[in-house]
Amino acid sequence: MTLKASFNSLSDSLCFASAITPLLLTVLITSGCQETETSAPPHGSQSTVYDSAPQTHGTSIGVSTPSPSKTIARVNGYPIELSEVDQKIRFELHDLNWQAYQLRQAALNKLVQKQADTGSQTQAQSKQQAIENLLTPPIPPVTELPKSSVSAKGQIHAPLSVAVFCSFQSPHCKRMQPVYQALAQQLGDQIRFEHFDYPLSFHRNARPAANAARCANSYGKFWEYSDALYAHQDDLTPERFLSIATQLHINTPEFKACLENLEYREYVEQDVTFGESLGLSNVPITFINGLYIKGPALLSTLNFYSQYALSQVADQALSKDQKRDKQQQIEKSQLPLRLVAINLASDAEHSTAVIELIDDESQALFRNNQPIQFSDYFSEPPILVTIEAQRVLIKHQGVLSFLSLTAPSSDTASNAQNTTQKATAVTSTGTFNEDQQTNQDSLELYPERRFNEGNRELPVTTLTPLSREWLDEQLMNQSQLEEHFQPASHKVEGQSLLKLSDVQQQEFYQTLGLQEGDVVLRVNDAWVYDGQNTLWETLDQEKDVTIQLIRHGLPVRYDYSVQ
């Protein structure tokens, strides 16, 4: 997603587009009342579909630029500069700038709504009308980070480094895991994740959990072990640490000694000390190439700052000739062409662009230095000169111009790429307290956690590894394990659902994370009820297993990977 496309998705209140259907406005700020995703690019792909041209101008509030050199105090003749003060509170200043941006964006949305409501264009006119958001979000300060002391996830030479300060006992950090996973799917080989431990003072079990994950890191299993810790966040005990190790085939005497001796305690405290030196007070904190992002964030927020960081990397990589070309007054092309998507490869020869002929909405794939021709439409076809991160340069009749990434028409969007990413809204990442989060706040920050009413399915959150050898041993006692399923009072179409009982001391159910009173609804795609329990068959035959259940009246999902 381009910087402009990501930026436009940050307008979190422009839901009026659906309410003013008669105007049929072509809203360049594709947004919604909540985060909405159609599909994510496959792993390793950089192809995305964009909703508007890259932003190169506009009103930016609170962009973190160096403070001017100005003496604001003297102590015994020693001057104290404004830049020195601002450096110490750079994160707090950015948080204020973000809140100011949110207030202005909300006010702007109301004004745009009012203006749209007073419009009197005909249907044909309104189709050509566009709303362009020129209010850009603040760019955070950049912080230089050391290399993490645990193994990174992703390509070592990836242009994007996402450093996450988290606590394994933080519900906010747990909820961010699928967001990070979605970002990784979209950016593929362009992204690398690094972990920093930042257990908060009231997270009693977070430090032992961090040590356990680092013990697993010595076996090359840090990220798998971390996923399992988040999956069992309410049970961060020594028994659970060993249970996870068993499933990952690393429950060795050395691993047990590592747990008991807290062998990596010093490394955990080094992360904490560094986080405190930065002034961090809550988790999660995300740094994208050093760009500071506070608190829980939606995918569109991370996308915006990722694309900004990529654009900075691309600018630094430009040759002298390319920089000179960029400084020239190159205007937007007036040809009836629309740039729909790009696939930017490390080797320029393999970069591609999907371009649409607006007149008939036909699309084709082009490479650098290739003529852009649709049948015989152009008597002298333009040449695709360069594919950049946010646009392409084309030359037609000796004139250099550019095409910006824009949204294809609704009828042809799905044809451009089967990985269309719909731009979405972002909620504020302002102040929050780790230990004071209401259920309503959770729903507002993470609407994707609600049941999808269409298929009654919860999204993936965390993944628990299961050992095939351990499973086979447990399933030999299937008849005894089945006795813990009892008919529940709930009925669906006359069939009694099944509830778990007397499972507190059962290794099988405890390892899966299941609890007393859980009402199991589905195993993978099959409903579970009295007379049909596919749990055993699925665990025996499948590698990927999902259990959906009701616990204390709330839906819960567990995902397992059998190894």
TrEMBL record:
Residues 154-296 form the Thioredoxin-like fold domain. It holds the Pfam family Thioredoxin_4. InterPro entries: PDZ_sf, Thioredoxin-like_fold, Thioredoxin-like_sf. The keyword Disulfide bond applies. Residues 35-68, 410-441 are annotated as: Disordered. Keywords: Disulfide bond, Oxidoreductase, Redox-active center, Signal. GO terms for molecular function: oxidoreductase activity. It comes from the Bacteria. The keyword tRNA-binding does not apply. Belongs to the thioredoxin family. DsbA subfamily. PANTHER family: DISULFIDE BOND FORMATION PROTEIN D, GLUTATHIONE S-TRANSFERASE KAPPA. This is Thioredoxin-like fold domain-containing protein. It comes from Litoribrevibacter albus.
